[in-house]
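5-formyltetrahydrofolate cyclo-ligase, Thalassovita gelatinovora. Tokens?
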Amino acid sequence: MTDDTETTRNHDVPVSAVAAWRRGERTRLREARQALGVDARRTIGQAITGHLRALLERRFNGAKGRIFSAYWPIKGEPDLRPLMTDLHGLGVMIALPIVETKAAPLVFRRWTPDTKMVRGDWNIPVPPPEADQVIPDITLAPLLGWDVRGFRLGYGGGYFDRTLADLDPRPTTIGIGFQAAHLTTIHPQPHDIPLDIILTEAGVQTKRISP
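Tokens:
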């Protein structure tokens, strides 16, 4: 990390102070999400699924002919697996992100409802190594917190930022999170890459492209 005299972009806040603030916010937001009951999380997930279906229809013709990267939910994240299955049934190629190498960009492996999953990083189920590796056109990015400029507060590993910086062309990236996780700012640092769209159970919250 840099010393206390370095500040985040657009905010006169020392980087060391931001790092501590982010740790605290991650804990707070994760605990608040876990405190929601199963029914409440299911309701939120269903609402996000509806908004995402509509967005994909408006912006991407339902994602037909596209490679769509989703995620396997952990730690109370919105569960969009039914949508993955539905899109697969419509002929959309579905992928999941994989931590193949620590502190490196993610890779994406193809997924189908028949894929025999294996345990990956953080014990998350992932497609096996023999699954086809693909490059997504659209990727979902689960988040703990978000701001209206499109910046995402994740778990702190930096994997999505590395991945977006590495991919060319860059996929359209849609952040998925809870409305209650809105933050005034995440105090973006130089490595933070804003997402194209933030989507919550209340709908599209911010967009850098026209959906």
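The CA atoms of residues 104 and 202 lie 33 Å apart.
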